Amino acid sequence: MGLDVLVIGGGNAALCAALMAREAGASVMLLESAPREWRGGNSGHTRNLRCMHDAPQDVLVDAYPEEEFWQDLLKVTGGLTDEHLARLAIRHSATCRPWMVKHGVRFQPSLSGALHTARTNAFFMGGGKALVNAYYRSAEKLGVQIHYNAEVDSVELDEGRFVAASVMHKQADGSVRRERIEARTCVLAAGGFESNREWLREAWGQNERGEYPADQFLIRGTRFNQGVLLKHMLEQGADRIGDPTQAHMVAIDARAPLYDGGICTRIDCVSLGVVVNREARRFYDEGEDFWPKRYAIWGRLVAQQPGQVAYSIIDAKAIGRFMPPVFEGTKADSLQELARKLGLDEATFMQTLNDFNAACRERTFDHTALDDCHTEGVSPAKTHWARPLDTAPYYAYAVRPGVTFTYLGLKTDDTTAVRFNDQPSPNLFVAGEMMAGNVLGKGYTAGVGMTIGTAFGRIAGEQAAKAVKAQKQGAAHANA
């Protein structure tokens, strides 16, 4: 058996694992299920990495210490997180960027209007696609064997030890060539199951209105994350973590494509106005917290509404204060006209908006701080940035749930080992979306997915190379 480390997956976590293992001297093969032009999974749609830092750095202002990062994560997850693993990822984020730069990743300052993230998030020059391409170039240069159109649908295990992977190589003529690949160690980094409509439908089930909410979900990222390997590992008895209905789920433009709409489909004006459902009623506090911390709750909120659709409503005062969407919104010169254009009940819509406007207690409006512009006497309350919608023209954006990645995954520890009956595998490791549920039980804060993928991808690669070395030393002693 010649191969040291087999990495299954082709996104950020997989690439980090492959690069770390190769740097440690191991021979490495990486299997990406997508064709070359779609390589990188969801990582191609990312923009930044949430970073702990105790002082200003090249592209990061002020400081963002460990405890603040942890408290931000604790708040959005509601405590559904493994503190030890979360802090491990947080500390890792303070030291990984020089390594990333060495492999060709470049950073730039936060764009103006980019979710108030200049202090907390380091942005990739050229976005996630540039990061993915840089890592692939570096991997090729270092001698990592890379195979595209290579889907692993099962692995052979021997009492928790990885033996081999069964690979389907999709050929140009549409045929499939099967191959069994043995390796001394393996890293699983093949993503969640967000692109698998049937699994989403099964997880979410039917609601009290007889609807299958998942039928209306859009997938923000790759179509290739079908969860084949994740399902196989759970069936093989790997310890699981997470709720299959929990995900990084954002309210995105209802006109977005089914797959790969990415960042540009997000609607960022929620906190500047109100959001109503198909019945023309508000259903949640639009001003609960800063958008980077709370934007990823809105997909789930919309998923719970009739028809899994909602409408983000703003007036002219909001223009210029948020990242403009790619698609133009529905525009009207009056709120009544807007209701008619949206097909909403005009009387209910006007009552909702009039009640909201009358409840606004406007102080000094400041969208960069948790200001004191709030509502009184209306439910749900809007706790910050509440201003009457009274200045034409008015705009509305229809939104649907956009799933980024799912949180059901494999339970692990600080070595990233896959566990069976709470016993760590000696040579099978997991990184990225397949284990993100250890840190993200629910909720999300901008950039933390890349923090998790980078931290645990690098640890997995390091641990895999270490396990190879131990195996070879053991074999040498046995033969001595």
TrEMBL record:
Lineage, highest ranks first: Bacteria, Pseudomonadati, Pseudomonadota, Betaproteobacteria, Burkholderiales
Highest rank taxon of the organism: Bacteria
Domain FAD-dependent oxidoreductase 2 FAD-binding, residue spans: 4-439
Listed SUPFAM superfamilies: FAD/NAD(P)-binding domain, Succinate dehydrogenase/fumarate reductase flavoprotein, catalytic domain
Keywords: FAD, Flavoprotein, Oxidoreductase
Transmembrane residue ranges: none
Cofactor: FAD
A molecular function GO annotation: oxidoreductase activity
Protein name from the UniProt record: FAD-binding dehydrogenase
